[in-house]
Amino acid sequence: GQMYGCNLHKGKKCAPVGIAKDPFLSCSTCADFSVDDSLFPRVGFISAAFMPVGGTETFHRSLLPMLKDLRNVVGFVATAFHGGDGRSLGVPYATGIDSAKQLAANSDVVVVWGIDNLQKIIPARRPKVIAVHHSDISNEWSNNLILSQLDVIDEIVCVNEQTAGMFGSCGKPARYIPNALDPERIRPSGKQ
Predict the structure, then answer these.
(1) CB of 112 within 8 A of CB of 142?
(2) Partner of 76 for a Cys bridge, out of 45, 84, 151, 176, CB 3.0 to 4.6 A?
């Protein structure tokens, strides 16, 4: 079929008709992750999955549209499992390892979840890498994923306080950021 060039490939044939016109994608194989310089660092998000439903999917669908107007969000890449509507993110979206490499190369900070091959994705001139542990301390898969890649990870964000404490003893900064409403901070405003 007829092909269109994306912004990145500057007129080369890289995308079938219809895909290149999508407001959030540059072409079927890559997003245009080049962005304007600003006062804020360029932040990219890389996840193992972006499906129609799920916890990390809800996190990204909620967070990224809010951040795009406040920060310099370069884009989002799902490396392995995809099927969610990338348009819901409000930022450039792509899939696959090659797109993840491109995003990392064009970011100052990369926030990752569920990635088991960071060494293959992160470039030599590497961005700061923040790994998200999206579970409690009993999740051996997530624990091992982060522990086995500490040489590439700069900071760890945990949604569980005990998990943040465990990773804090590994020599990397670990932060606890609750993954839900904090009952200590939310108070009823009336007699509901």
Answers:
(1) no
(2) 45
In angstroms, the Cα distances linking 102 to 81, 122, 134 are: 18, 9, 24
- Please give the helix or strand (H or E) that residue 65 lies within, else none: helix 55-67
Would you state the pLDDT for residue 33?
A: 54
Burial of 105 (0-12, 13-18, 19+ CB in 10 A): middle
CA distances from 150 to 68, 119, 147, 156, 162 (A): 28, 11, 6, 9, 19
- pTM (predicted TM-score): 0.73
Cβ-contact 16, 28 below 8 angstroms: yes
The letter for the amino acid at 92 is P
How far from 28 is each of 14, 31, 96, 155, 161, CA to CA, in Å? 7, 8, 11, 32, 40
* Distance, CA of 161 to CA of 153 (rounded, Å): 19
